[in-house]
Amino acid sequence: MTAVIWACGIILAVATIGILYRLWKGPTLLDRVVSSDVLLTIIAAGICLLVFAYDRYIYLPILVVLSMIGFISSVTVARFASNAPVNAEIDRVTEVDQKDVEKNLETGSEEG
Fold it and tell me: Any transmembrane segments, and where (predicted)?
């Protein structure tokens, strides 16, 4: 069992190195946010590995808090990542549809 724990630890360490590179080098802000979310997940997986290796369940509340932070941060970034609010996007689509209807009326076309 010790070999499996060490193998998982090595895999998590390599994944952490890759994610830290993406966090540092990421071309956009969203890349950095996603990589920080994945880093939080890797940390949670490492804590799970500690719980399994040492049979200490005292770390489980920390896992719950980390999971909540990861979920809330992902939802928050997804909500505020778009440039326009949802209502403005709907208004813009409605405006485009109205322009198409007006254009079709002017040309006499009944398509659309």
Answer: 6-24, 36-54, 60-82
